[in-house]
Structures are given as structure tokens and as C-alpha cells.
Amino acid sequence: MGFLSSLAYTAGTVGAYLVTLLSSTGSSLVGYLSSMLTGNVYITQEQKNKGASVSIFEFMTPVQFAAWFIAQSTYDLTTIISAAIGSGAGEIRFVAGTYAAKQIVMKYGVSLRGASEMLCALQALASANAGFIINNTGVVGGANISGFRIYGAATVGGVPVNPTQYAILMKSNDAIGTQGGWWYSNLRDLFVYDFNYGIKMEGGTAVSDLHPIQFIKMEGVKVFKSPYAHLQGDGGRALVMSGQVDQVTGSACEFDGDSVGSPYKGTNIEFIAPVAAGGAPSNITFDQQTTIQWADQAVLWGTWIGDITFENCWIEGCRQTFTIGSFSNHVNIKGCRLANAGNGAGGGGVAGAGYIVSVAQASSVTFEGNTIAGAYDKVVSCAGNNAARIAQRDNYFPDIAGTDNNDTKTTGNTSISSEAG
After folding, report:
1. pTM of the model
2. Which helix or strand (DSSP H or E) is residue 69 part of?
3. What is the pLDDT of residues 252-274, one digit of tens each?
4. What does the alpha-carbon distance between residue 148 and residue 133 come to, in Å, rounded to a whole number?
């Protein structure tokens, strides 16, 4: 319970006193109101902190604070951060510094706010955890993260100690017949660095259950894959959306690949539908100069994934830019600048193997108002008797690296409409 700190008479009551106790955290008693009329009303730490914005330092003893201040990036704060998130506070604040942990579990209604992505860091320590920052079970809403640089655990040489770990892994782990997932939350002003795998949003797959990742907004989120991501079999991922992921926007974000490996390996953004005709990403938009750079695949689709828009984005140095899977409709690529995108020889690759848009069976794509600069092999590539529908119009080619905006390679009964820009 703690030690008696104060005994104060409460004006306007009959025989009421507020007794405050020290050294109390979590569900421990921090005080009680004693009255001849009502008896004792007990107050816990959760009730005191409910919805409040509190400093992480409130959950450290003086000894712990001194140890953290000296060690910082190697001092394990896992239990302290967990206590803060479970305290009932609505926001946990972090001043400039480095805060290390093995894992951070986000809970409903609790946000983490750092002082600045350039001054405040969350450091992953060595562990076997699939994700460094994850969500709790059940519906986790209003769980925002902002103002941090998020570092992966690395050796002195820079090779990640947790080579398959995601920096942020928001996943529905909930049972059939229940609701769960990550809802109504924001990622803002984050810089993810030294992870082979950046952010993964993994919703449920059973259409009968509500297990989505939904109503998520990313603003100013930057994911730079580790320079050792090319050592992974798949080259790593900057961002993955899988299963029931809906109503997500990414504005002024950046997803960069590993430009060290030759040839480039890996995919920067991937959309996955794990189960045919089950949950699949939908209603996803990237805009406001979101940047995608340095990868074998800039954006990779699975099947049955539609209503995806890239508008006013910058895409550079990716050998194969948009690879769209079958039965993916209402894909929009508008007003983007594509610089040396679709150049198969880029990053030590194979000349002639590049493209800007590849469309698989029975998918529909609108490709309009884009600027295509620098080297590329093909603008649109379609193969097979695939019944794809592609609309091209008002695209601008300042360098005339190919022929014109009808520079396509198709076979089968693909329908392509083109209008000069």
C-alpha cells in the first residue's frame, strides 16, 4: 500500500478526510476518502491516472531512473513501459532519450508520444518476438504512436539480431466468434530503422468474424529497411497489409528498400489475401508525396485485392514498380512521379525485365496523369489470356526513354485504352 503521505480535511463534508499514500502503482491503493456518512471510498492508481497524460518517469524509482539515464539503449524497460500502459493513463509521454525494451504491447485507449522522431528513440532488445510493438488481444482502439525513432536490435556491425522481427506488428489474434484487431488509431512522425521488416498490419481471414485492422492513418511514417535486408530470403519488407485491412491512409510517408544488395532484393509494400475469397486489404490510399524507393518490387499485390489508390506519390529506383495480382479491381495510379522506375537493369538486375505496371488476370487499373522520367523497360506489361482492363491517359514522358504512352507489352485479350497526354 505505501506510507502515509498526508492527512487533509475535505471542506464541505462531515468528518471527511483524504488519506494519500506513497509508493503505489498499478491496482495498488493510492488513497481513500473516509466519511462518517459514506464510509471509506478507495482510490487506485488506475482511477487516479484514468485518461491522463503522464510521463514514463512516473513509473520509475530513483534507482531505476539513474540506471536508465546512464545505460539508456541497453537498459531493459519492458516491465516499466508495460506498467505505464496498464496504469489507466490515456497517454504515456517520453522526453528526448533512448528507451529499450524486448516488446511493447499496446492496449485500448492508450497512446505513446515521444518528444520527436529525431530526439526520442524506442530501441528493440534481442528477443525471439515476432514483433517489437504489438497490440493486445480484443479490440484495441485509440492506440496511437507518434514522435519516435524506432530502432531494431543490431550488433556492432549493424546486422539485426532479430532478423525476422517486425518493428510494428498489429495482428488480430482473437478467437472465432469474438471481435478484435486494431481500430481507429494513428501512426505519426515515426522513423523505423535497422529492421529487415518494418510494419505489418494483419487482420483476420474469416468473413464471418470482425477481426480487422481498420480506420488507421499513417502520417510522416518513414521505414528504411536494414542495409542487411538483402541477406533475408525474401529481401525483407517495409510494409505489409494482410487479411482484413481496410480504410487505411498513408500520407507523406516513405518506404525505402535495401539499396546495398546487388541486385536489389525484396518488396517495399505488399498486399496479401491469405485465404481465397476471405478477408483481403481494401480501400487503401497512399498520397501527399508518399515515397517508395530502391527495391526489386515497389508494390506487390496478391489476388482479390481491390480499391487501392496511389496518388501524387514519388517512386524511384524500383525495377518492377506495380505488380498487380488477378481479380484485383479499382486500382488507381494517378499523378505520380516515376523516376527510373521499371528499369530492369537497375540495381544490378536484368535489362528488359522491368515494368511500371504489370496486370494479371481479370484485374482493372487506371493509370493516368503520371510523369515517367528516366529509364524504364515497359510502361504496362500483361501476359496471357487474362481479360485485364487498363485505362491509360494524360501521362507525361519528359525524357522519352521509351516510345510513348502506348509503350505496352500485351498478349491475349487484354483491353487497353490509351489517350495521349
Report:
1. 0.86
2. helix 62-71
3. 999 998 766 656 788 999 999 98
4. 12
